[in-house]
Automatic annotation (TrEMBL):
It comes from Haloarcula mannanilytica. This is Nucleotide pyrophosphatase. InterPro entries: Alkaline_phosphatase_core_sf, Phosphodiest/P_Trfase. Pfam families: Phosphodiest. The lineage of its organism: Archaea, Methanobacteriati, Methanobacteriota, Stenosarchaea group, Halobacteria. GO terms for molecular function: hydrolase activity.
Length: 514
């Protein structure tokens, strides 16, 4: 059986890549499209890292696994909790490969911190693999745990770049650090695949999208894509490899910054309370300013060590408080609606939910800028999500127009502005390319769903597709794989190694059991 390497290109879009392909800047990617099968993809809403990497690997939308954004909002309980890898209730495509006796490795995967066991290896990555505000974790990001030491000794591996990119003006060492990280992701994935004779490997280039956010189609992003293109050429030369390129979502140049919670307050859906953050914001003391000063002084690591995280979190971001701090800035008893960024909107059950939802959807559909409506549509949550967790999800979901960044900061004071720090914002429109011995060259397909990729990979490995995967097997094979369907694995099944006590311990560690 042919091996498969899936390269996850965070935030990749044909809107960004097509001009470079046409200009001859990315010849290997152009050749791969010419000889393989390719398409645009549609992400699940919201089009962000959390949840879309898990949408890809599970073949489900967020209603199927219970994570709708980086945070979980429970207004009935008055809680907002930051999510991590242990909060996803689902098995993934590598669990099904393992269940069929095939080996798998996952390198630098967002949504997988803390890492869990699969048959071979997991290296967690992305924005969730972080400790505190100013420094990344230095251990505990791999399964098995001893793999981290091997990666650091052999490859000088790290989860996050150092120095960390935090400004559009930082085009030197910060960009170089990201390019070095991308190179090492490829080196680790391909080396471990060959040395351990793995049947399947997934590798994610998360910080690629950080470059998109800060620079869009400017020179730092092109430098990164030329590096990717060189690796695509090397990988495409291998005759023993199915190569799949895909992204969790796309990106496009930012036109408008929309502060949805500020809009909610202005339009009577949210009532504010006085907080320390609001007072600090008024005097211009915010996290971005302090981080810039700390970086210039070379004391970022020192501050991270000596300043307790609880104190770090008291300093607001420039555009207001976020995550679990948002509830400190509002009067929840009088507030009807609280929003997360980039899509999910939650209605307080203390009010008539259906009445509030009807008026809210109508009002949001009218929000516009000089380019037109900010949202391509505004949905009821149950109209875009499927599965056992729909009721725990948002009551309303906005589908932000390409070029619109929906910011959930509370207390920044601005409702709508031009681009701030981000030169590009996420869109639901990503990329897919498949080439290799097991794939037929079909040219361009109509737009596919991100949910189609996991069933297609399983079919390429001769594995039956779980009945709870909502995607379809793509027409990329010379002959119908006819792999059939199977019963889904539970997360307990995915972790089961025959030792019930050990499974229970791991479930508790990962947050699935009390």
């Amino acid at each position: 059986m042919t091996k498969t390497l899936v390269v996850g290109l965070d935030g990749a879009s044909w809107e960004l890549l097509d001009p470079w392909i046409e200009a001859g800047e990315l010849p290997n990617l152009a050749a791969l499209r010419d000889t393989g099968t390719w398409a645009g993809t549609r992400s699940c809403l919201p089009p962000v890292t959390f949840p879309n990497w898990k949408c890809y690997s599970s073949g489900k939308d967020p209603g199927g696994f219970g994570v709708f954004w980086f945070e979980n909002v429970d207004l009935a309980a008055g809680e907002i909790n930051v999510m991590n890898g242990g909060d996803y209730d689902t098995a993934e495509l590598w669990d099904y490969l393992n269940d069929e006796g095939q080996s798998a490795g996952v390198v630098n995967m967002p949504t997988m911190y803390p890492p869990r066991d699969i048959d071979e290896l997991v290296v967690a990555g992305g924005p969730d693999a972080v400790e505190g505000e100013y420094r990344s974790i230095s251990s505990g990001y791999t399964s098995p745990p001893e793999l981290a030491e091997e990666l650091e000794e052999r490859f000088d591996y790290s989860v996050h770049p150092d120095p960390l990119l935090s400004s559009n003006d930082e085009r030197g060492a910060e960009v170089d650090a990201i390019l070095d990280l991308l190179e090492k992701r490829f080196e680790v994935a391909t080396t471990l695949m060959d040395e351990r004779d793995l049947d399947f490997v997934h590798v994610t280039l998360f910080y690629l999208n950080v470059l998109h956010h800060f620079f869009w189609d400017d020179e730092p992003s092109l430098r990164a894509w030329k590096l990717v293109d060189e690796w695509v050429g090397r990988l495409d030369d291998r005759e023993d490899l199915n190569l799949v390129l895909m992204s969790d979502h796309g990106c496009d140049a930012t036109q408008t910054e929309f502060y949805i919670n500020e809009w909610l307050a202005e339009n009577g859906y949210q009532v504010r309370d006085t907080s320390v953050d609001a007072l600090l914001t008024r005097i211009g003391l915010d996290r971005e300013n302090l981080l810039a000063v700390a970086k210039r002084a070379g004391v970022v690591d020192t501050l991270a060590r000596v300043v307790p995280e609880s104190i770090q979190q008291l300093v607001p971001q420039k555009d207001g408080v976020k995550r679990d701090r948002k509830l400190e800035a509002i009067d929840l008893e009088q507030t009807k609606v609280v929003a997360s960024g980039q899509g999910p909107v939650y209605i307080n059950p203390r009010f008539d939910v259906e009445s509030v939802r009807e008026s809210l959807i109508a009002d949001l559909r009218e929000v516009a800028d000089e380019h037109g409506p900010l949202f391509t549509d505004v949905y009821r949550g149950e109209d875009v999500y499927n599965g056992p967790y729909v009721d725990a999800g948002p009551e309303v979901v906005v589908d932000q127009r390409p070029g619109v960044h929906v910011n959930d900061g509370i207390g920044g004071g601005t409702v709508q502005s031009g681009p701030d720090r981000w030169a590009a914002e996420n869109t639901p429109y990503g990329i897919f390319v498949a080439s290799g011995p097991d794939f037929e060259s079909q040219g361009e397909l109509d737009r596919i769903s991100i949910l189609d990729i996991a069933p297609t990979v399983l079919a390429a490995h001769g594995c039956a597709v779980p009945t709870d995967m909502r995607g379809e097997i793509l027409p990329v094979f010379a002959e119908d794989p006819d792999v059939g369907q199977r019963e889904p694995l539970s997360i307990a099944d995915a972790l089961d190694d025959g030792d019930g006590d050990a499974v229970e311990d791991r479930l508790k560690q990962l947050g699935y059991m009390e």
